[in-house]
Amino acid sequence: MKAAPNVPLVLGLCILPLLVFCLVLSPRPARAQESGALDTSANFSREQLAQMLAPVALYPDVLLSQVLMASTYPIEIIEADRWVRQHPTLKDKALDAELLTRDWDPSVKALCHFPSILTLMSERIAETTNLGNAFLAQEAEVLATVQELRAKARAEGNLATTAEQKVIVEKETIVIQPADPRTIYVPYYDPFYVYGPWWYPAFPPYYWHPVGVRLGVGIAYWPGIHFGFVFGTWSHFDWHRHHIHIDVHKRPRFVRHDHWRSDSGRWHHVTRHRRGVAYRDQETARRFGQQPVRVREFGRDTRGFSGRSGDQRIRVDRGLRSVAPPAVERDRQRQQRDEQVERQRQQRQSDDRLRQERQRSDRERVERQRQDRTRIERQLRVPSERSQPQRFEREQRGRSRDNVFNRVGEGRRERHSSERGRSSRKRLDDGGSNRGRR
Fold first, then answer.
1. Which residues does 137 contact at the CB level (< 8 Å), separation at least 6?
2. Most exposed of 128, 217, 229, 323 (fewest Cβ within 10 Å)?
């Protein structure tokens, strides 16, 4: 009698190879996996916040608030900069009339009145995007860092009331206002000088200053921007609550009434103007309703290359820029430090040349003054020197009036006198001979 076959055992032996085969062929998650979002939930550090805010912390409050809000819309910053370059003659009311037709955030439109600042933000779009991401995720810390930087500049004696701006200190809050509400002066400065010795050497500050302009000591200003209205009254910092307040009753004239918010209060980021640029962290993305970013990691072996497994790049399907790995970030920071050292070296060389030129100019000026004094003294001595021989000659003639040699050199007069003498003697002789004949 034959034993009945064990059906479960047979099925197991058949299925097991199939499962092993599927596991072998399945993609390795470490090499190519699609995740929900890039894990960059960590906030910016204090060092990073100081680094990115250093070039703008001393801006007037009305301008700084526009810069912070507009930095959250990097695509519109680039578009606005290109548009302003194409329309360089538009100013004041004509510019505002054209801005009514542009679908940009009011803060971006406001910066169109400051083309130099707009250009800097567009050319340094990575720094601008970081600033905007920090403001969205850490608004209170950003404003606290601004106050910290202002306090350091004031302690160094580099932040005070001037003809261009008013500095108001309210307890621990420093407010910067334009001296004339209708004229805005934008400062530029060397962060390494104006704040004193930089306290985060691994995170050198950003530089936002005019191209081709050498940064000196203290604070310099761009040419003042004049307005036919009080600029920036529709937004201001609420330093105590650490946010930007919007006054709905002071709508700027470059914003259409149907595109203006309906109530006053705290500023809110408008995702529509973000134009699809990915947010830096998952929390911010969820807060503004953005779907998780699809991210794929690629290693060198995935692309057909063998090498170190750590050499990876992260490609963001939607975003303004790729996120660099730590090694690339360290290289970038090292390059920034090297560039900073080179700028400082060139600055010292330039200062040395200026000092040498100034010293040489001073020496030449002193030498010219000495030569001028010598020439004047010589001119004053010449008349007296010329009169001395004449006076000596007169004295000599007076002392030797009866000298037989006084008349030497007067040949004609001597000959004439001698001839007169001979004539007299001849007449005398002739007269004597005539008397003897008688």
1. 43, 44, 280, 281, 283, 284
2. 217
The residue type found at 243 is H
For 164-192, the pLDDT digits (tens) are 999 999 988 999 999 988 888 999 898 98
Q: What is the pLDDT of residue 147?
A: 97
Tokens of 34: 């699609």
**Residue 312, exposed/middle/buried by CB under 10 A (0-12, 13-18, 19+)?**
middle
Residue 128 CA to residue 69 CA, distance in Å, equals 11
Six-digit token string for 393: 């000659």
Residue 153 has pLDDT above 80, yes or no: yes
Q: What is the pLDDT of residues 210-261, one digit of tens each?
A: 665 656 677 888 777 876 555 667 888 999 999 999 887 777 775 765 556 5
DSSP 8-state class, residue 255 = S
Rounded to 10 degrees, the C-alpha dihedral 407/413/414/415 comes to 160
Specify the higher pLDDT residue, 69 or 293.
69
How far does CA 106 lie from the centroid of its chain? 26
- Contact by Cβ (8 Å): 147, 170: no
Q: For the chain, give percent helix, strand, coil, nearest 5.
A: 50, 10, 40
Torsion over CA: 140, 319, 117, 83 (sign): negative
Burial of 405 (0-12, 13-18, 19+ CB in 10 A): exposed
Strands of the sheet containing 34-35, edge to edge, are 34-35, 295-299, 312-316
Q: How far apart are CA 189 and CA 159, in angstroms?
A: 11
Lookup: tokens for 434 = 């005539």
Q: Tokens 């971006």, residue?
A: 108
Task: For the chain, give every domain's residue range.
Answer: 46-283
pLDDT in tens, 188-217: 898 989 999 999 999 999 887 766 565 667
Please check the confidence at residue 82 and state whether its pLDDT lies above 60. Answer: yes
Distance between CA atoms of residues 355 and 352, nearest Å: 5
The closest of 305, 251, 244 to 68, measured between CA atoms, is: 244
